[in-house]
Design a protein that fits this description.
Porin, globular, alpha+beta
Length: about 280
């Protein structure tokens, strides 16, 4: 007589939800929606819910943003960009344009620790005339994690992204935010952040090799690891209804160290401004 082993109902539900998250994430990777750029992350953090879920809860928010952003990091030319926003959370699982795909292995009212998978968007030579002769920078998957600590109105976040084939190098980020509840409808948030980039990342995004130098006219430049930027940011949110949120975000970022020394940045600007509007809808 054949015995059939069945999984407990709770475990089966988790497996189903995990499968759904991975399917959605795979579909998003087929499009540029989840491809993270600084403005995507800033808009996503602005629209994402700050409160944590209790076990078994589900929350979903979608939205769109319009940003005024540099054509590439280090450019002094700007463009209008559409910024899709997605934030899905079930129990400890999350999928968002701000944080990628992850699972909170530690989740308390103050602490969150999660491994994450993201997709880093590349850069096309055709994005700006100053990139002529440099070729494309490949995008690709990144793996890493994040740790966040929320004491009261403050939030401190550390994150790591390591390139997995395609995406070059690694990034380590540190950020601090202070939330200001102005009224039941209005809230604001101030932020200070920095990011450390490895030499592989800097070579891909800011370096000039001999072939690129011959094609572009820039001098050869081989950057090392170092702090890539320091940024100051601010967001203001207005709750139009219980489910609809209007937001404004702005960031001033100064490129530093190996990035600032790049001939590409010297031809453009180390001063980077990002600003825009978002509107989000909380489905549940």
């Amino acid at each position: 007589m054949t015995r059939h082993h069945t999984l407990p109902l709770a475990q089966t539900s988790w497996l189903k939800l995990a499968t759904v998250f991975f399917i959605i994430w795979g579909l998003l990777l087929a499009s540029p929606l989840l491809a993270q750029t600084p403005e995507d992350e800033l808009a996503g953090w602005n629209a994402a819910a700050d409160d944590q879920l209790t076990e078994g809860d589900f929350k979903a928010s979608v939205g769109i943003g319009v940003g005024y952003v540099p054509e590439f990091e280090g450019s002094d030319d700007y463009e209008i960009a559409l910024l899709p926003i997605l934030d899905l959370r079930y129990d400890r699982f999350f999928l968002s344009t701000a944080q990628g795909l992850g699972f909170n292995i530690i989740q308390t009212p103050q602490w969150t620790v999660a491994p994450t998978i993201n997709y880093a968007r590349g850069r096309d030579e055709s994005d700006n005339y100053r990139l002529a002769g440099l070729g494309d920078v490949s995008g690709g998957l990144t793996a890493g994690g994040l740790v966040s600590f929320h004491p009261g109105q403050f939030a401190f976040i550390a994150d790591l992204d390591v390139g997995l084939g395609g995406a070059e190098g690694s990034l380590v980020g540190l950020a601090a935010f202070y939330s200001i509840p102005v009224s039941p409808e209005f809230s604001a948030k101030l932020g200070l952040s920095t990011q450390y980039a490895t030499s592989d990342y800097n070579r891909a995004n800011f370096g000039i090799n001999a072939i690129q130098s011959a094609r572009s006219g820039y001098p050869v430049y081989d950057p090392k690891s170092g702090i890539k930027h320091i940024a100051f940011s601010g967001t203001v949110n207005y709750n139009i209804t219980e489910k609809i949120k209007l937001g404004f975000f702005g960031e001033y970022r100064v490129l530093t160290g190996p990035a600032d020394d790049s001939p590409l940045v010297r031809a453009g600007s180390e001063d980077q401004i990002r600003t825009g509007l978002t509107i989000g809808y909380q489905i549940k």
